[in-house]
Structures are given as C-alpha cells and as structure tokens.
Amino acid sequence: MELQKYLSKFLVRRKKTLSEKDYHLSNEITKIIGCSIQNINLYREAFSLKSSSKFKQNNNYERLEFLGDSVLGTIISCHLFATYPHANEGYLTQMKSKIVNRKNLNKLGTELGLPNFLQNDSHTTLSENLAGNLFESLIGALYLDLEYDTCRRIVLERLLTPSEINKLENKIVSYKGLLLEWSQKKKLSIRYETVEEIQANRNLVFRTYVWLENESISNATETSKKKAEEKAAQRAFYILNKKQCIIENPKDHP
C-alpha cells in the first residue's frame, strides 16, 4: 500500500516535470517497449524531422537512425547465429537481409504507429521509408537510454519477436537477387533491358524485359526503373520455377 502511494506521487511529480507533449510521447513509448524510459530528450530527437531552414540548427532522427541501424544489425546477427548453429554464412546473411530490409522495417514502423509520434511538421514530402527510418532511430534511442542488454531484450521480446523472424524464413525479398544467384550457379547469362513508354493517359512508365541468354522470358511496367525490374524478375521467377526448382535451402549446406 505504501509502495502504491509512493509510485502514485512519483508519477504525479514526473508528469509535472514534463510538458504535456513529452508526457504523451513518454507514455506511448512505454506502452510499446513495456518499461519506463529515462531520457525523454532522446525520444524527442528520435521523432524529429530535419528542419528545412538552413539557419536553424535542430536535432533530428537521422543520427539516431544511423546508430540504430548498427545496433539492430548486431542484435539480429547474434540472434541468428545462436538460433541457427548449423546454418552457413550465406543463409545467415540472407535471413538478416530479410529482417532488416527497408520494406520489413517500414512495415514494423507503420504497425507501431511511429510516424504519429513526429514532433514537428514538415513542409516537404515525407520519405516513403520514414516509418522504417523511425524504427531504427527508436532502436538508437533505446540503446543510449537503457543500454544494450535492455535494448536487445525489448527488440526480441516486443518489437521483432523470434516468431515474427521465423515467418520471414521462406520469404523472398528480392526476385532480382534470387535470379542473379541462380543464374550464376547455372552459369547462365541473365540481363535486364528497360525502356521508357508513354501510356495513353500520357503518364511515363518504365518497361523492363528479362533476358535469359538470348530469350526474353518476361516483361513488366512500373512507375520507376527499379520497381519495373523487380516486377519483371518476379514474373521470370515464376516462369522458370515451373520448369525447374530455383529455390534451395542454403542452411542445409555445409
């Protein structure tokens, strides 16, 4: 009972020392990570955008994103190394890539609602990778605030659980990369040819053709060259996979 009274008084005093905005941010982060944070300044910085004014110096998420990227990479590498004791280096690298690739981090950041915690407005178009960038900046803030062991526990128990990691095991992140690896093993030449096209509505699109040796096996259009290549590679993969098994399980290899 006495402990409850103390905690109640402590929380009231803590709320008074924080602005309403900071208190809300602290509360939301605590809900996500399952424990209290210490330094609100780190999380304010983790969710601050870069100022467009060249005269205004401001702390923003980019430095913490840089740090969080390395910390997350270390946590995931150690987890995979311990979880798959017989996996080869190639398999471990592929698994890590599936986990920390931009698309997956964007998904995680969006599901956690991290863009909702932004501390300042931006008059520029926000990056399509903002949610993933904020996920990494949150990891950076957690590492500095709560130290590595606590940060690692939060990541693996609440943010990127082993069960979620296992779901990615058979997920294909890049069909283009998969086809390249397959063609190199088979000693076959695979190349991409991309041209610009103007559609009937006058929109510019990119059409990519996938060539295996001297045969065009698929093509696709998209709004960017990179997206067109990946979509065409995906179509080529399904065509080739019907004829022969492209995917092998590298963790079984010595």
Automatic annotation (TrEMBL):
InterPro entries: dsRBD_dom, RNase_III, RNase_III_dom, RNase_III_sf
Keyword rRNA processing applies: yes
Binding, Mg(2+): 65, 133, 136
Transmembrane feature ranges: none
Domain DRBM: 174-242
Domain RNase III: 26-147
Protein name per Swiss-Prot or TrEMBL: Ribonuclease 3
Organism this protein belongs to: Kaistella treverensis
Gene (name only): rnc
